[in-house]
Structures are given as C-alpha cells and as structure tokens.
Fold these 2 entries.
Entry 1:
Amino acid sequence: MTIRGGAPAERTPAGAGDDLNDLLRRVAARDAAAFAALYQRTSAKLYGVVARILTRGDAAADVLQETFVRIWERAGDFDPVKGSALAWMATIARNRALDEVRRVRPGSLDDQPEGFEPTADEVDPLAARERSEGLAALIGCLEKLDEEKRAVLMLAYYRGLSREALARRFGRPVATIKTWLHRSLGQLRDCLGS
Amino acid sequence: MTISPDDDDAAAEYALGTLDPGERAALAARRLREPELDQAIRAWEARLAPLAEAAPEIEPPRDLLPAIEARIRGGAGEAPANADFVGLRRSVALWRTTAIAASLLAAVLAIGIVGREMTRRSTPREYVAILQKDAASPAIEVTVDLDRQELTVRPVAARAPPGKAYELWIIDAKLGAPRSLGVIGEARRAASLAAYDPSVVENATYAVTVEPPGGSPSGKPSGPPVFVGKLIPVGR
C-alpha cells in the first residue's frame, strides 16, 4: 500500500466522492496510510471552513487538529447513504469551530472586534461552478430568498457570525435577525422538501 | 417530525451556529436526552452541509499532520479529544433535571469553559477558572491549589441580585449530584477541597447559581447555573 499525495499536481479535488468514502472506510479500519491520504485530500477544504469562522490562526489550527482526531475516532459512524464524505467531515469541523467561537474565555471576543467586520473574501455559493447534487438543490432554494436574507444566512454559515454581529452588520435589531433566520431557514426546509 | 416548531427553529439555528453560548449549551444538553431533537439537529446539519463544498480551500499550517498522527497514535484507549466538553454537556443535562425555572435557562445560562484539554504530563499544581456569562460581563475567578487542597473564590465585580446570594458548586460524574462549595461572599474566600479526589477537582465543572441568602435550603441547586467554567492549569 502506498501513501498518495506527494506533489500537489497529484492531488485530486476534494469533491471526488467515491474515493473519500473508500478512504473513510479504511480509516474506520484503523488504516494510518488512508488517514494520511484523507488528510492530504481534505485538510485545505476543512481549513477553509474553520479558518473563516476562527480568524485567529492558532485557534483554527487547533480546531483542525481536533477535527481530524475526531474523524479518526468516528470514521465508523459515517454513513454514505446520508450524505457525502466531505459533508460529514465538514459538519464535524464546523461544529468544533462553532463550539470554539461560542465558548467564552477571558480576553476573547465572541464576535469580530469592532471595525473588523469581514468584508472581502465572502463566500458566494451561487458562484460555485462545481456543484454536487446536494449543493445544486440548496442553491436553487437559496436563490428564492431575497438577497439580504440570503446574505444573513451565508455570513452565519461561512463566518460563524452571531445574531448580535449580524444585527450590527445589517443595522437591524437582534429580534429582527432572529425572525429572518427562522423564516429563511423554514423556507429552505420547505423548499428542500425534507 | 414530532418536535415543536420552536424546537425546530432552535435546531436550525444550532446547525447554522447562531445560537448564543447559553442557548447552544442548553440545546447540546437537551439533545442528549431528546432523540427527536437530536434528529432534528442532524437533519438541519445535513440540509446545510453541502454549503461547505463551496468554501474555497485554505492551506493549513504545514506541520499539523504529524501532530495529529502523534495524537491518534498515543490516543488508543484514551478519552476522546472533547471528553470534557461532553462531560460538561452531561453535567448541564444533570442540572436541567433539578432546574425549577427551566425557562430562565436560555436567558441566564452561559458557558465559560476555560481551557479544554487537561494536560497531566507536567502536573501543574495550581489551576484557575474564570466563570462568566460572556466576555464583557463580570466574572468570578476560582483558583485551586492542589497541594494545599484549597479553593479560593474571588468575585471580579460580579454581584448577586439584591436579596440573593451566589453559591458555588462542583459537578462531576463521579460525585453524582452537584456538591456545594459554599456561598460566595464579597471578599476573597478559601474553601477546603480535602474531601474531593484531586482528579475530580481537576476535571470537574464549576458552576454558580443564584440562591437565597445563606445558600440553597435543600442543599441542591435550586436553579440553573448562571456562571460555569472548568479549570486550566497555570504553569509552574
């Protein structure tokens, strides 16, 4: 068995589904080489998820480490019927990042410091060229929301912004943001029909 | 799906990440006991998960993989990486069962877990926890000296509501129910921990409730915690 992924040119995009399923299955069987290959294939993607939420680099790196430890421990729980391998791993990564950002420590800030509202480099899934079936369906539903409400959801998802941070950013009361979130999410659920 | 619309909203916001720390912790505790809520959260995670595909890649720092491999090699038989968070969620679940004013929970419960992985290798003997609601709010500082088996509480500008007192509790699965460490006064105050095993002291969750003056008459917390935290070692 060889460990894949030395030169960057050999790397396959993280979206390639069957391979990741296979790697996870081998990781569940405690295959260390498969784990290293899985890391090579997905770490930049998962770091892209956590580092947008945790803007402090050391915190993002810690969470990425914990995420992969957890993937190692839980690989056996992955069920390909319920979703893609990448979605399963990204959910673990995102939950860890959210636990971290919603955990309050002395000297830490729940949200971005004042004056450091994220502006550049926002993720717009609608611009994604490569779309899995799941993403395409979700985008179809997101397109039905009006732009501002979609932007609220996207900043919450990709940047981990709290209701308070969203309220500041959109110049609305927190209660309004909460109502928007519930309505938009309800519309998404009905649109996705699941 | 049989959960209420409000719970489904909360599950959706849990998955999206917009609940505040107290609500997030409360829901994390409830999902351990309410399979339908747990299922609703998972359903929301699955609905939103495809969005992650659209997040552009960012190269992580280079040296992470060896560190992770070292952790999983050394990790056989050890507790999962987030064991103490799970432990805390369970503790909070335990609290919920004794909480009378459950509706207060969302308003007041907030988690200030300080530190996450106890490193026992270098055996530091002094620990500190900052218990607070959020970063901007007053805090209660708990310092533990394991050698002297002593705990010191210092309210940092945190004041109990008029006619009420703050009571400090130690919570650990090994103890069963939460145990009182006494009422917190205005000044620095030391309490003996001689009755507790050092490993319990190190790993326990510390929580503060609002009680009548003199402390809870029943000896059990009469409401949900308003401050929560865990200890982190302060180096030698």
Entry 2:
Amino acid sequence: MQRIYLGEFEELVLLTVGVLYDDAYAVAITKEVEKQSDRSVNVSAVHKSLYRLEKKGMLDSRLGDPESKRGGKRKRLFNITPYGKKALDESMDLRVSLRKQIPELAFKWQTN
Amino acid sequence: MEKKPTIPRLPHAFFKWYCQPGMYEEMHGDLEEFFYERAAEKGLFTAKLLYLWDVLRCFQPYAWRRPTAPTNAGIIMFRNYFKISLRSLMKNPLNSSINVFGLSVAIGIAVFVYAFASWTFSTDQFHEHKNEVFLVTFLADRDGTPQEYGTTPRPLGAMLREDFSHIEKVCRVEDRPVVVKYGDRVYHERVRYADPEFLDMFTFPLKQGSKASLADLNSIVLSENMAEKYFGTEDPLGKEVLVKFDKDNGKLFKVAEVAAKFPASRTISFDFLVNFDNLRTSPAYNVHDWSSTVAATFIQVDDPFNISSIEPGMDKYKAMQNSAVQPDWAITSFAFRPLATLHETSEYIKDGISRSSKDNYMSIVFMAIVAALMLALACLNYINIAIVSAAKRLKEIGIRKTIGATRGTVAVQFLAENVLITFFAMLLGVGLAMGFFIRGFEQMWGFDMDFRFSDTSLWVFLPATLLFTSLVSGIYPALYISRFQVVSIIKGSVKFGKKNTLTRVFLGLQLVFACVFITSAVTFTQNSAWLGARSWGYSQHEALYTGLPDAQAFTQLRDALSSHPDIVSISGSFHHLGRSEQTAVLHFPDRQYEAMELKVDARYFETLGLQLVEGRAFRENAANDKQAVVLNATLAASIAPGVPTSEVLGQVFDIDSTRYEVVGVVADFHAYDLSNKVEPTFFSLANKNDYRYLTMKTKHGTEKEVYEALQGQWATLFPETPFMGGYQEDVWGLYYEVIDIHAIVWQVVATMAILLAGLGLYGLISLNVVGRIREFSIRKLLGAGLSSIATNITRRYAALFAIALGLGAPLSYQAMNLLFDAAYTYHMPIGFSGVAVAVFVLIGVLLLTVAIQVARLRKFNPVNGLRVE
C-alpha cells in the first residue's frame, strides 16, 4: 500500500486539532501552534492546511454558533477522523522505527 | 460595551471579491477575531496593517472563487475552435511556421512603414500654435512660371505688426555664420537671430532657463546638443560665450536658456538663438531696406480663419516692394503658409527656412507598395497551404457537418483559426519591426524615429491590420473548405487539390512579385556601383579647398603654400563648386534666362580639371576679361538651341545692365550630388579682393600630405579661426552612403521576397508530394528512377514557372524603368541583367525544392506508402 503523505506543517496542524479537541478552529489552532512550536504562523497557512486535510479525509468539520467577537460569524470546528488517526500513527511509527535503526556509532562523535 | 473598531473597507471588499462565497463566513470570521483582538492589544493602526497582510496572505488558490462554467453555447464553441486550431497548428509545425513566419515578416514591414509614415506626418505637429502661425512668402514670375520664395522684404515684419489687428505676433528670423568660443572650444556655427516672440510661437520644450530670456539683448539660447558640445557636464546657465560675428566684431552672450532635445521630426529648429536686434550692431544691416530680404518672417494670427482678411491688405506692400527693386525682381503677390503643413509646402518654396519632407512622401509610397506586395505574398502562401492541407481535415469537417454544423459555422471556424495564426504572426511581426527593421533603419540613417507603443493610432492600425490580413488570407480557404458535402467526404469522393487553378494562379502571382523584387535588388546594387563610378565632370580626387575669412588670408595662405612640391596649382575664387554660387538673370534683347553664377579666377578651370570644349578660359591679368564669361554646356545649349556650341562664342548679354561676352564653354559637371540636375551655370572673373575660397590641385596620391600641410599653415596663420577646409571629393557629404543604403534596403526586401516565395513553393510541393505518395510508391516499386520522379514533380510546375516568369520578366523590366526614373535624376541605363538574375534565382529555388523532395522520396520505403490500415 502506498504510504499516506503528510507534510510537516500539516502534521503539526493535524496534531493540534487533536490536542484542542472540540474547540479546534483556525484561530485557536494558529495560536496553539505558535505557542507550542514557538514559531510565527499566519492564519492563512493554517486555513490552507485545514482545507487540504479535510479534502484528504483526515479531518471533518461542522459549523459552530455565531459569536460577537467574530463579528457575528460562525466558526468552522474540526475534528480528526479515523483515517486521520491512522495517518498520524503511521507517520509516528515510521519516525520511531527509523530513529531506532540509527546505529549508536553514528552518535559517537570524536572530539579532535 | 465599548464601540467596536471597524474593519478597513478596501481590503474587506477585496477579500469579498476573491473569496468563495461558501467559505467567506468562516474565514472572514477568523480574520475578524484576530483583528478585534489585535486592535485591543496593539492599537487600531497595527491591527489594520496586519489585517491587510492577512487578506493578502489568504489570496491563494484554495480560497479563490471557482470560475463558473460557461453556459453560453457560443463561448463553448469558440473555446473548442481555439483548442482545435492550436492542435492543428502543433500537428503541422512546418506549415504553421511557414505561415506564421511569412505573415510576421510582412506585418513587420507594414508596422515599419507605419512607424516611418507617422514619423513623417508628425513633423512640426508638436507646436501648440501650428495652425495660427504662418510663414510669409512671396510669388514672383520667373521665366514665365510663378515661383514662390520663403524670404521676405526686411521692413515687412514690423509693418505687419502695426497694420493688422488680427496679427498677434510677428517674428523675423535671420541666420548668420559665426564663430562661437567658450574656453578652448572654438567652432564655426550658425546663429539664428529672432524676435523675442520666436519661443512663444514655436513651442519647443525647454530644459533649463526661461522663455522670456530672448527679449534680453545679451542672452543666448542653446539647443541641447550645443550645450553638450560646449559645456559637457557643466551647467551652462549663466555662463558667457563669445560670439564672433566676423573677424573684428564679437560679443559676449550669457546663456539664459537651454532647449530640451527637439522632437524627432521637425522642419525648424536652432543651434543658437539670440535677439534679432543684435543684427543692427553690424552697421551693414538695414532693417528699413525694401530691396533686401530677411531669411523668414512668421506671423501668428488670432484665428487661422482671419488670414483671408489679411491677404487683400498685402497689396500696398507689393507696391512698396516693387518700387524699391529692379523690375527683374518684381513680385506678383504675397502669401501665407501655415506652420502645420510647412513640411509639405516647403518643397515648392525657394530659399525657404524649413526642410521639406517630400522625399519622405515618395519613400512612404514606395515602401507602402512594398509592404502591400509582401503582405500579398504572405497571404497567398497562406491561402495555398490552407487549401492544400485541408485534405487532412476533411474528416473533421465531415463530422462537424454531420452533427449539425452549417457551412457558415465551418467557415467561421476556419476564419477564427486564421485570426489566431495572424495574431501570433502579428506579435512576432511587431517584435521584428521593433528589433530589426526600425532599429536597422535608424542606425543606417542615423536618426531617431521616436516609435512608441503609447501612440494611440498604432492601436487602431494594429487591429485593423490583423483583421484585414486575416480576412484577406482566410476568406477564400474558409469558403472553399466549408463547401464540401458530407456525403462525398465520407464516401471519399472529394476531388481535391490536384488541379486547383486558383492555387496555381496564386503561386504564379507570388513568382511575379518575387521576380520584381529580386530584379530591383540587383538593379539598385548595380546602380549604386554605377553612380559611384560616374564622373563628376572634373577631377575631384586631386582637389583640396578651403574657405577663407577674407581676401588677405588668400594671399597669406598662397604664399605660404606655393613652395610646396606636391601642389600643382593654386586658385582663388569668390564661389566654389559644391559650396556656393549665386543666381543671376541673363538678358538677351528678346529673352532672358536664370542661371547660376560662379565668380572664379583664371586658374580655376585648370586647378579643378574642368574640361574646356570650345573657346578659351580667362586670361590672367587681362583687364577686359572682366566682361567675359565661360558657360557650361547646358547653358550654352539653352541660349542657342540647335546650333553647334562654337557659335555660342561671342554672344553677348546683360546682367544688371552690364554687358558680358561668351568666350568659352566647358563640359557639364556636377557641382552637387547626382540627385540634382546639372543647372545652367556660367563662370565670371572674381575681384581679387573678394576671394573667399582657395582651391588646390595636388599631385596624384599626395592629397593627404597636402591636406596636412594646409591644416598646419592654417593653424599658424589663423590660430583664432577654426579650419574651414576639406577634400573636394567630400563636398557631397553622405551622398554615396545614402545610395548604398538604397541598395541595402532593396537587398533586404528581395531576401524576404525570395524567402517567402521559396517557403510557399516548398510548402506546396511537399504537400503535393505527400498527396501523391501512393502514386510515387507505385512508380518506385515498378522501377522508376529518381530522375523520372524528379521530372514528374517538376513537370507540374514547369508550365506555371514559364508563364509566371514570362509575365514577370518584362513587368520587372518596365517597373525598374519607372522606379529609377522616379527615384533618381541620373541613373544607369536599365539592362536585362537584373531580370536575368531574378529568373535564374527563381528557377534555382524551384530546382532546390524539388531536389529536397526527391531526396526524401529516395529514402522513403514504398511499402509504407501503399499500406492501408
């Protein structure tokens, strides 16, 4: 089977959606990613990843209630699908398995 | 609750415009949430900036509106045409590139002609008052024909200003040669004296300084070129230059204005401009003298319509003028020529101040004809190839018609395809024109055509050319192709392309055009050599000359140079061949002639090598030779038509009531370049105190040494005056370069024509061979040799070639005679060699094309040609 492809930033977003459970919408995700990864993120990048992940079937979404802090507009809330979980796990396994295969020798740097 | 900050309107509108309606609510909600938060934390301004940034960042394909699928059947249909056209273009790269390339060359030439024409017609049009400003001219009777002159009696300008309420401004203009000096830069220049109104009437763009400066007697206005020549990178404003009017008089002028670069096309401009009243400082200039003229007088009226009310009032000046001058110079009337059309009218105005662009009109007509023929060549190529290659698309047409296309829709499809091809060709053609034709032309002639895309009429011209070209080349193939019946297409019974008379006629026409172009290229090249070898009527190669500041300088220079071993003879004169002469009227008891007069000394003929055919030259130190004249053959023939030249000797006539006698006749000579007719000319003896030229004959091959000796003597004798000498063979300036350019232009045109005709022929023959591939395969299988196949292909075109060349050759010959008579005053006798070269080249092209096809057939496996799927 062909591996499920997941970009680095996409993976971050997917993980964050899981972390935020039930309150995962673009603004919250942006702030969370900024906080946790300590890098500056634009909301447009998050939008893009969210819509792509949804298209790939790793996320699904529903509309929330209108809020006044959003100028009376509803927000789109995301949550992970089983397929999304599978993708996350596979990606994680791959990393772990690769990490395990690195011989200890590779980390023995000689100081000369 | 506090008042909410408002979202910036413009970025919001932009977001709304590009965002998918379905995503707008959630996405913009996010943006708003950020915006309000930031407004509270970081201030409204930062929030607005960041909002704008977010909007721009979100401008990405995932958020864009999806284009709505077209529902209009017409659009869908045209999109399909477009796709099919591109596919069929890609499928036949050879044919498409022949078509596109041919059309683009033709369009390139057309764009070039357009640029040249618009350059010519824009002459002087930048002057704001071009319709209100008029040049005052007068008409006089010369040998029975009225002649218009551009000069004006001197007092007229001031009087016009007083006498007519409709005349708002008057400006007199006079030119004088001077020496201009700034620091160590000293050059001969021409200064233009003009009334202060000059810069109001002629609105030249300014670079530095102010227009009013001309009113100041001590100010001078410089052109941009002159500012660079004298001041380089220095700022010229306020600097003082010395203007030397003659040897003893000079004056310091302060630079008060520098004109910007003059528009590329103009009839009137200036190098240096000073106030007209500076002329009065030289005492000889009398502004009240009716018998003297000023170089030009311009008037500006309040309304161009009122010029007709001024004209009747001019009669009283006519009376004043005619009472002041001799009856020879009486005038018949005054006239006014508007500035807007001066570049056209000045061709017929003698001694006018402005340049005529009539030569350019001739060129435009010639080039327009060439461009039209090129376009015709390219269109014919297209038509031929389109018709023959339609065979490949018969099935497509059949299917289209079966599913409901009418003849009209099929025709429209093919026309649309043609518009597309022509459009590509036009892009390429404009590129060709800009990068190659226009640039090359500008470099050859050394001027700036000022061609810009911002020219609005260009955007009428280009689409018009596009439409015209695509219709002309596309309409016939479209109608022809759309004619076929579905049934016969499907049955395969369409008889096609085998014997299309029209195709042959078109190819024939192409050959005729190509024949004309090649002939003219050959003939122009030959003529260029012929003109180069044509004798000037005297030995210009061994002669050197120099202008002189005064007669004393002649004695000084002659004494200094007379011992030089390489100088054969030295002569002094008031006029000089190719440099100066004057007009005189010869009175016989019963008739009169206008002729050119050159005042020279006794050794002039010998020095320049002018050939005496009858009588004698002037005698040195013979007092009564003061009344002797020597005529050139043209004048001799016109005063005594039909008699031997020897009988002209001894004839007498009056000039300004002094009697002269003919003592000799010289052979005709070309004082000016070969575009000028030999004028009736005579020589008379110059007063020794009037010498303004010194002419020398050198031993053959020593011209350079003598020239350097002359320059050296000049530098020691007259260190203050710039050198005025030169080689006699250089007095025609760039004439021979211009002639060579004519040849180059025609060579380029002929190359294009050969290329176009060759490509067309190649395309046709290769299509023909492809169409007959089965026939050739059978021939090959049955043992036909290559020569028999070659003959077979050629036979089809032999008759066509014979007819086309039989028509084209005499036509070319006639066209050359017409063209050369119109373009040149003197040209070589037109022979048949040009036509012969054209015929050989075209036959060569045919043979080459056939050879290529035969070579292809030689490698071709006949089995492939016979196999049927």
